[in-house]
Amino acid sequence: MEDNIDLAELVKPSILTAQHGNGKKRIAEATESLQQAMHQFVELLNDRARLFADSAQFDSALQDAATIRTLLPGSALGYLCTGYVHCQQGCYAAAVAMYDQGLEAVPESDAYYKHLQQHRLTAIANNSKRVDFISRLPLDIVVTNILPRVKPKCYSESSSPCEHLFVSRTWQKRILQQPDGVNFDFGQEGRTFKKGHDELVRCASYVQSLSGAITGEVRLDELFSRARFSNLKQLDLNCAFSIPHRPLLNGLRMIADSLTHLVIDGYPCDIKLRDVLESCPNLILLTTEEVAAVLPSDACYPKIMHLALHSISDTAPSHDHMDDLLSRFPSLVSFQITPMPESSVLALLPKHCPHLQILYFGSLEFDSSKLITHPGRKGITMAEISGEDMYHQDDLIRFLHVHQNSLERIVIDAEVDVKNRAWKLQHEQVIPEDEEDALLCSENDPTQSETSFPQLVDMVVSDPVPSKSQALITRIISNAPNLKSISLPHSHLEEPHIADAMIDLKHLSKLRVTRSKSRNFVIGGVAKFLTSHITRGLLSTLEELTLHANQAMLEVSWIPLVSNLHCLKNLELVSPDISREWFFILKQIGQGCRSLESLKLGTKRCKLVDGSIESLDELMEELQEDIPKVIIK
């Protein structure tokens, strides 16, 4: 006997091969009563399912509808009921699928067969409806809240096609009203622009920013001949040396009317700076790599505000060359150049570029769009001084003196040459090297007035050898009363003068001590600095501390002092190895630094040595009782 019982079979009329008395009549009556009870039961389930659906109790409604299909699999009623529930949910595609399933399972003679057909057509129509909410909402809501979630930061043919632009004219208008418009990356092209890139060509008139790489014999003008890029403002190209010279410049001329930002890196054939500037007369920002800084004899480019010239020559640009180059760009707000020119060029900047605010001298930040400038302000606010050649100390002293009232951040990664100097640093003061020089004062002579850096809040020192730069670093720190953040190698803290100057700072809240070449960690300067903040107790301003450490630092006695910094909120110990010795120190820190909110240990792909992983989980649980955020990398 089968365990699975088909309830529909139970209510079918029975065929009797034998009968007892009036049993046939009574069986027929009983079967008819069962049929009536079954239909009544199904009708009640159908009514309840619809009531559940109307009350948004969709799980219960679908359960009742499924029961109807089980009881009467050959009836359209169960499929109609399930489709109704899906429609109430707004799931019209699921409703259509259910109606299709019913039309296959139910005979055409069923009383509800035509109902299935009608409801299927209605569900298909509803599934095809689209409500264009974007055209009805206020513009500011669409631009600031909706489109950033829908539109990718950068379109490409492979991952992010421009489908949103072609929903309707209203969508096009709303998307194009965004400040940054459409950004598109065509990837890498090494063959030809005569074919392919259909998505890019399709939305050419909407593209405001375009990026990609071209190699081989690719001709840039072939791309811009296929469509009109009338709104293209930014172009970021990575070029191979083999690309044709003239087609590249012709392509730039074709978009010159709208183009204001251009980045060309890689090895862009044998073009010169004059070629780029003559092809694109409306540029505001220009970044180049391996483009020789050759200019016409009498040309000037007042529209250029951001200029980054990387690898303009194999040797350091001379003073005379830079004097001529800078004189052509009187409106510069940011300037970046490598290789490092002669340090005497620093004195030319106020003369030729009075509006300059950001300087990368001997280094480069490729993404100039991240640079923050302030219209109308004069004086350099951010300076990064680096390079492989040495800086004459006099040039640095003069530069710092001229920009003392505007500097907010300075990065020094340079060796200082103290030979053949006119001035020397003594007790944080600038004095003439010879007494005779004292009689010859110039307009910006730092010996004639005090030098102070009231705006300086962030200082980074990368030079690992402090012997020649120590006096200069000490002078800056001693005369920057509002410094809040300092990053420097451990070797500089070995110098007592630098540590003493840092102790006197009243607003220092962030200290980053990077690794130095020396493995001999001296106690003096660091311990003295930490002890001063421990002594201040709750009045200490030090809240963030980053230490680049190694196993040698574990033997340094000033490391346990960290656990007594009661105001410390964020601590990061950057170490390539994590051993058991670290665990004892971490426990001390967890118990001592009562204000600590975040603790990080290790570095990317650091090694766990000496079986330390066995104790790691236990340590994490113990630390997290005192510190909200603990990260072991």
Distance between the termini: 65 Å
- The amount of beta strand, in percent, is 15-25%
- Give the number of helices: 21
Query: Rg to the nearest angstrom?
Result: 38 Å
Helix content estimate:
25-40%
Overall morphology: flat
Strand-pairing-aware structural class:
alpha/beta
Q: Let me know the average pLDDT.
A: 83
Describe the structure.
- It comes from Lichtheimia ornata.
- This is F-box domain-containing protein.
- InterPro entries: LRR_dom_sf, TPR-like_helical_dom_sf.
- The protein is α/β, with parallel strands linked by helices.
- Among the domains are: 7-127, Serine Threonine Protein Phosphatase 5, Tetratricopeptide repeat (Alpha Horseshoe); 140-299; 484-633, Ribonuclease Inhibitor (Leucine-rich repeat, LRR (right-handed beta-alpha superhelix), Alpha-Beta Horseshoe).
- It is 35% helix and 17% strand.
- It has an 18-stranded parallel sheet. A two-stranded parallel ribbon has the order 11-13. Strands 14-15 form a two-stranded antiparallel sheet.
- β3, α10 and β4 form a beta-alpha-beta unit.
- α10 (220-226) runs parallel beside α11.
- The two termini are 65 Å apart.
- The model has no long low-confidence stretch (mean pLDDT 83).
